[in-house]
């Protein structure tokens, strides 16, 4: 009975969402083409009516997804839900086209606007080399410190965020869920957003950038580390337990030896990512080469921009190669 | 001889609902080499893991050397566990460290947390580890990484690790199931030696009757979580064998 209600509710809300979205898209298009105006409430009412109509007649998408009907053996092209999905895709494409202001004409005819930056790229100004290298060094160290500071936090948190290590008690579960939720939450907030927060908090500069990357790295590494723990071979854990070792000894002797080289690999990979992100973070006040790039771009000094772009590309390329090499070696260990 | 292991009406029901042990009454005397027979899924592994509480039993009693295992926790449980060496089908060694380090980890139940976290072992423990590796014929392999050793060598390292515990009892969960017949016999020889020379009580699950007859002093057979046969290996004839393994089973000989 309870299950039935759940299925009905799922069906209802899927259909309701479907029809309101479809009506909304159609309204946007009619408004765009013909200047057609309508109170928003009519979209909701219309969506509700269509939902009830097609849900009750049993041919809607929701019915198809959650309540296998007697039409299931029909090919999709001969069903109502099939065609309504096609309509949805077409309408979505058109709405997207207008929302994003897609304009191929501009793309092909306005290349001239970019002449400055293009010629800057091929005639980089080496006069600012020492200044740029200084900013670049700042960025690399910023990324390095963000990674280093993140390691101990993520290392400890990862043990408590690993399903197989946490006892299946209320406390164990709460700790696991809490840490996993925070890690997901903090990771889903982009480093650039953290940089905005910290550039207000501690002022514009590399320190703000480092804090932003550190927070993001803790969250990301906690997740990667704990998944690594969940993938370990349980055998040694069992064996070390059987010798009479306590929990902490089991972690140190059976878990850590199994995860140490993947941990290092992930950490180096993270440093690699952090160097790349440090540039972006610099744009919003995180200091380093990103900040310099932003300043030169706003002054329209394209030759300076050119040099900075080449330097960033070179560093990212070198980091990418070396980190891949080191990780390869670590996996073999 | 006194009973070193006793279970009374031991039951285990897993969270999945599987009733793995259905009232096991097992008595093992000091110095016995007890072979557990039975199909995969008959409850052998569950029984062995209940004995040192790697798995919590659902109901019933377990006594090992006079200590109640079911209620034990914390330090008491660790003290019970360190008297019971355990050997596994998949060896369960730490693959990317040396044989010596693996053997030393057998001493963890005895060393303080501080000592173990700083990896500072006592000299006598290191000597004992070498001694135990020598005993299983692997002294020259002490500083080799375990993953570079063969299956038989790995299982011998696992035996050396168990020896570090100075155990009274050895639980062996299909110790030779992933080894070739010749290596299997070597590993069983070491277990037999511990049983006879050091008077350790061994409970060992196996699939090969030939090995059971050669090394066992007693056989206990499980089927669907119940004991269906108990007796000396000699009593285990073809009829009994078919009772345990089903009508279609043929005995596979390994020598």
Could you characterize the architecture of this molecule?
The complex is a heterodimer of chains A (333) and B (255). Chain A is flat. Helices cover 81% and strands 0% of the residues of chain A. Chain A has helices spanning 2-34, 40-57, 61-66, 80-99, 104-109, 115-122, 129-160, 170-188, 191-201, 206-230, 234-242, 247-286, 288-298, 302-332. Chain A folds into two domains: 2-102, no CATH class; 120-332, Orthogonal Bundle (MetI-like fold), CATH 1.10.3720.10. Helix content of chain B is 33%, strand content 24%. Chain B has helices at 44-51, 74-81, 99-104, 113-117, 123-135, 151-163, 181-197, 209-215, 238-245, and strands at residues 3-13, 19-29, 33-37, 59-64, 67-68, 84-87, 169-172, 201-205, 218-223, 226-231. In chain B, strand 9 and strand 10 (226-231) form a beta hairpin. Chain B is globular, with a radius of gyration of 18 Å. Chain B has a six-stranded mixed beta sheet, with helices on both faces. A four-stranded antiparallel beta sheet of chain B has the order 2-1-4-5, with helices on one face. Chain B is built from nine helices and ten strands. The mean pLDDT of chain B is 90. Chain A binds chain B through residues 233, 235-236, 238-246, 248-249, 252-254, 257-258, 261, 333, and chain B through 52, 54, 77-82, 84-86, 88, 90-97, 105-110, 113, 116-117, 158, 161, 164-165, 171.
Cα separation of the termini of chain A: 56 Å
CATH architecture tag of the largest domain in chain A = Orthogonal Bundle
What average pLDDT do the residues of chain A reach? 89
- Biggest sheet overview of chain A: none
Largest interface, C-beta closer than 8 angstroms, per-chain residues = A-B, 21 and 34 residues
The SS-based structural class of chain B is: alpha/beta
Order of helix and strand elements from N to C terminus of chain A: HHHHHHHHHHHHHH
Total helix count of chain A? Answer: 14
Q: CATH superfamily of the domain at 1-82 and 202-255 in chain B, called what?
A: P-loop containing nucleotide triphosphate hydrolases
Number of strands of chain A: 0
* Sheet with most strands: strand arrangement of chain B: 6-7-8-3-9-10
Low-confidence stretches of chain B: none
Helix-strand string of chain B: EEEHEEHEHHHHEHEHEEH
Q: Shape of chain B from CA axes?
A: globular
Helix proportion of residues of chain B, in percent? 25-40%
Determine the structural class of chain A based on helices, strands and strand pairing. mainly alpha
Largest sheet of chain B: 6 strands, mixed
| Total number of strands of chain B | 10
CATH class of the domain at 1-82 and 202-255 in chain B: Alpha Beta
How many DSSP H or I helices of chain B?
Answer: 9
